[in-house]
Amino acid sequence: MNRRKSLLVALLCAASGSVMAQSVQDGLKDLYYGKNLSAKQTFEKVIAAKPADDKAYYYMGIAQLAMEDVAGATATFQKGLAAVPTSALLQAGMGRIDLIKGDAAAAKTKFEAATAATQGRDGDVARAIADASTEVKGGDRAYALTVMDKLLNNEGRKKKDMYTATAADYIEQGDAYRYLGGENGGKAIAAYEKALELDANNAEAVMKQGLVNYNARLKAEAVADWTKATNMDPNYAPAFNELFLFYTTPKKDQLSWEKAAEYLEKYMAIADPADKTKNEYLAASVAFFKKDYDGAIHKGQAAIPSANEFYKNKFSLLVGDAYLQKGDSLNAKKVMDDYAQAVGESKLDSSDYKLLSTIYLRLKSSDSATQAGYTDKALGYLEKFASSTTAKDPETFTQIADALKAARKFEQAADWYDKANELRVANKEQLQAIDFFNVGINYYYAGVSVSPYDTALINKSDAAFQKVIDAKPELGTGYYWRGRANFAKDPQAQSGIAKPFYDKYIEITEPLGIEKNKSTLTFAYTYELLYYYFKEDKANVQTWSDKLVAVDPNNVTVKQIKENMAAREKAPAKPAAKPAANKK
Length: 584
Fold this sequence. Notes:
mainly alpha
């Protein structure tokens, strides 16, 4: 399930005075606080005492889905429908299962039937449909909003048919707006505010306002919201989890293992005591984020034998990453290779591919064939990570590009830097000179790394370097690299296509200090010298020879050109050609 899942809080439903209703509410309370196993156990007791309680079956299935147990949830919904064949709520639950399995059409049929059966006025059913449509991949977010709007719109209804909204309803409406994204962010915030008007201490509403702010790249505001939620309700584990996830995200303004460990410990302190395996995983994770890698490895390996498939995956990733972080790439490889073989290729996900690619990129061998095998495998896993990741954000694409660049796969790296830029533009971010430079430099190295040079790739680099100039015209970098790109296309400097760029680069750079720009000025001066040499412009040849010798006293090009010019001057003049005889 998506970690942003709605917790489906229905605590504000009208409570009867019966013990059974209170027991259902106890299970819902556990769901709200993220105690999924305890919730499941509570609903099992409810069902045992009252086998026809469809809410107990439905929310038990939701608890199972939160624990990644799709088969168990399916069985629970089916058992519930066998006991209560007319339950619209369980019909909606089976629609969610259809979505999880990728059958959106079957899901929509069940959702429409459940809506028709309740005339769209049952809060549990509407939230069940909207939550599935919002949270599950392939769901129709616009439809989710329509369902919630229909529930909350009392216009034209008779007094007896009026629906009394709950905080949970407005949270679900806010979720639909949030997932629709873009300009709907403000509407999501407003919906969460309505939930808070009904329940001023609802930490879920505040936590989800933080998600809206995070999606809008207002990271400080997001952290403030999540912190506020933990202060409102110190037992609200999902907010601590958001803070933990924030500080484990590999972005330069987020990643902090120290803070991650801090919030993970706080989360662990209020985690579900019934879930032994999860708590073992949390303990191993705390050790990892405190950089106690041996402790993390020991705890993880001890827990793997008794863990279910879901946690075997998580423990294997943790242990493999711990070996990697402590510099033991070979053991990291062994752990992850064994895991990949055990579960099979079809069950590997983006996290698995990312770690496997990182491990294989770190492996070093003195044997060239072995090293080539490591690199190929790393890039294969990297491509699978790229195609499987749901995190379609610029920084994820940039990380992929960085790894490709490190493996000297320059053309692929340039493509991924370009894709990252396209996402930034789509997100209405202002591209910086460095964004264009990353594209250009990788296309350049891809173009000049083959023989003969690949002109098409060099042209791509040239276009990217022009964008560097457009973004930062006062910076010499774009001019210099446009010079390099055109120098590659004109290595004898006879056409002069690189000259305007080197002229501008020299104009900008020389006043900044020749000594600290020796290497780049050497390229620029060399092109200028070659250009004037082939033009047989002796005065300028001397000028640029002097400049080159000033930065590189033993410059080979200057020496060769002087020798060639001297030899040319010593060569005997050819006798004038006699005019051709006039034939009659």
